[in-house]
Design brief:
Helix content: 25-40%
Shape: globular
Order of helices and strands: HHEHEHEHEHEEHHEHEHHHHEHHEEH
Distance between the termini: 9 Å
Number of strands: 11
Strand order of the largest sheet: 4-6-5-10-11-9-7-8
Number of helices: 16
């Protein structure tokens, strides 16, 4: 069955002529149609996808092919895509059709990938469960009563249920890695500035970063190869050479040192998560890596620091959604001020309003120094903790999330509890360094468990190598949810 294959295996099948792109795309579109209860997609472009597949088959027949030509992909609905709705999971943009492509969309299209649709997400990427989406929550294919994680939950569901082999996501505080962990996938947050943010609707501009969600490290490397690189249209994009990520996979891990922060293995971690994490670390030892204890002493400050900085940036970024130029506009109003107020009150959901209000307060006169400036100082201290830790180790490892996927509705009325599900992922965003989550087992109810590996700035090749070598020695990444196998 083609849908069981990895991206690299599907590429080989197309190259050998065992299947056409049209046949492959139709296979995945059929699976999407049969799996609508998962609510993984906001928009499915069946007609456009088949037209792209036909074009890919013609290119292949003419000898013009690449590693990704004719392969299906889904984009998180935060990336602008010409001619398709880009909703950001919000009523505010429910009918918005972008006139241009985001750089990530453009670059992947240039490689010949076939866009089948846009995936569900927390509204404006604000959430950890995809429950804040205006279009309803995505459901975890391992257990439909559980969350998929967030904010890139729709992308994770689509890949886990094999509705597409790979998808894009964005990560502001763990929004690629946490849903990847909850759904048994490989999810990579690259270094800040590695992937262009042009055309990616902003939540928190100093934290957001795009990355791949895939079945394996090898597939993630293939996708990142196409996504990464300097973009003059993005002021935060760094002009730095892009290495060959797939070649780096073959390098050994023997002799590397992996640091284990004591703060990541405390009592907040579920027993099953801790057990699976330690078992995975033992496997790295068998591969020749050395484990050492380290400390990230200010990691506990990551949550309060993040929830000052991110909402502050969000309050600025989301000010453009006012009903004047594009997006939702309230139906009745007496004057311009009332139009602003009613449009934003009706167009934004509860969590988005909460973060806008927090951010506006933190930036207001009299509170800027007490909150925002102080949070930025703490951010620097957290980054310094990582720099000190990397003096003693090459990589850092720990659970991606303290628990496996929680029940739908379990934390919607307790935002602090929801925020704490990202406690181990947020600090990498604050420091701007890369991190990857890989599947390392299951709890006693059959829900996936993820291990997070963190590296120094722009060491995505090393992280992908560690993940690939582990996946060559284990098969956790090959497991499929029983209803989708």
């Amino acid at each position: 069955m083609p849908y069981r294959q990895t991206l690299s295996a599907l590429s080989a099948m197309l190259e050998r002529g065992e299947i056409s792109s049209v046949e492959l795309i139709q296979c995945f579109l059929d699976r999407i149609g049969r799996s609508q209860d998962l609510n993984a997609f906001i928009t499915v472009d069946e007609e456009g996808a088949l037209a792209q597949a036909q074009s890919a088959d013609r290119s292949r027949a003419n000898g013009h092919t690449g590693a990704l030509t004719g392969l299906p992909i889904a984009h998180k609905d935060i990336f602008c895509s010409r001619g398709l709705k880009t909703t950001c999971g919000s009523r505010m943009l429910e009918d918005f059709v972008s006139p241009y492509d985001a750089t990530v969309v453009e670059r992947l299209a240039d490689t010949g990938t076939v866009l089948v649709g846009k995936t569900n997400m927390d509204e404006f990427a604000m959430g950890s469960s995809t429950e804040t989406s205006w279009f309803g929550p995505a459901r975890n294919p391992w257990n439909r009563s559980r969350v998929a994680g967030g904010s890139s939950g729709g992308s994770a569901v689509a890949v886990a249920a094999r509705l597409v082999p790979v998808a894009t996501g964005t990560d502001t505080g763990g929004s690629i890695r946490q849903p990847a962990a909850f759904c048994g996938l490989t999810g990579l947050k690259p270094s800040y500035g590695r992937v262009s943010r042009y055309g990616m609707i902003a939540y928190a501009s100093s934290l957001d970063q795009a990355g791949p969600i895939a079945q394996s490290a090898e597939d993630a490397a293939l996708l990142l190869q196409a996504m990464a690189g300097f973009d003059p249209r993005d002021a935060t994009s760094l002009d730095k050479e892009v290495p060959d990520y797939t070649s780096a996979l073959k390098h050994p891990v023997a002799g590397l040192t992996i640091g284990l922060p004591k703060e990541f293995f405390d009592s907040s971690v579920d027993e099953s998560v801790g057990y699976a994490s330690h078992a995975a670390l033992a496997e790295f030892e068998k591969l020749g890596a050395r484990l050492t204890d380290i400390s990230l002493p200010h990691s506990a400050a990551g949550i309060p620091c993040f929830y000052v900085i991110a909402p502050a940036e969000a309050s600025s970024n989301l000010s453009r959604f006012d009903g004047v130029r594009y997006g939702y506009r309230t139906e009745s109003y007496r004057d311009l001020n009332e139009m602003y107020e009613k449009t934003r009150a009706e167009g934004f959901g509860i969590e988005v309003k909460r973060r806008i209000m927090i951010g506006t307060f933190a930036l207001s006169a009299g509170y800027y120094d007490a909150y925002y400036r102080k949070a930025q100082k703490i951010r620097q201290i957290i980054a310094d903790d990582f720099r000190e830790a990397f003096r003693h180790c090459d990589y850092i490892a720990g659970p991606t999330s303290p628990t496996t996927a929680f029940a739908l509705g379990e934390k919607t009325n307790d935002p602090v509890s929801m925020y704490l599900s990202d406690i181990f992922t947020i600090t990498a965003n604050l420091a701007g360094i890369p991190a990857i989550s890989i599947p390392v087992g299951f709890d006693n109810t059959g829900l996936p468990i993820g291990l997070q590996l963190t590296g120094q700035s722009f060491d995505e090749p090393g992280l992908l190598k560690l993940a690939y070598r582990y996946q060559q020695a284990t098969d956790w990444h090959r497991h499929l949810p029983k209803d989708f196998s």
